[in-house]
Design a protein that fits this description.
five-stranded parallel sheet; Rossmann fold; 5 strands; alpha/beta
Length: 123
């Protein structure tokens, strides 16, 4: 397989989700960088040079949509995949209006890997 961009930045306030996703994606050959909050990511945004963002929609400091708005204002223009464990029509609608892929927890498996490869231009 030709080399491709393999970096995935994950933002989720649940340490178990971060651990599970890191394990899954690393076994698929991705380089994973995790953040336990939106504010942690914003504080370290200099590392966001290339890759894909995997952002939880429901976090206590900033929700995924607000984080994405902040990143866009800061001119961070990486592809984004949203994830949620809280089925909600408003989340579905906002993701759809923004043209953002939305993956449901706990169904974070091969569908997610395909979404990430697609976002990175590798599948």
């Amino acid at each position: 397989m030709p080399p491709f961009n393999r970096r995935v930045f994950i933002v989720d306030d649940d340490p178990h989700i971060l651990s599970s996703l890191s394990f899954l994606l690393e076994t698929e050959g991705f380089e994973v960088v995790t953040f336990e909050s939106a504010l942690d990511l914003l504080a370290q945004r200099d590392v966001l040079d290339k890759g894909c963002l995997l952002i939880d929609c429901c976090m206590p400091d900033l929700n995924g949509f607000d984080l994405l708005a902040c990143l866009r204002r800061l001119r961070v223009d990486l592809p984004v995949i949203l994830m949620t464990g809280h089925p909600d029509e408003r989340i579905d609608r906002r993701a759809g209006e923004g043209g953002l892929p939305l993956v449901r927890k706990p169904d974070l498996d091969h569908q997610l890997v395909r979404q990430i490869r697609h976002a990175l231009g590798n599948g």
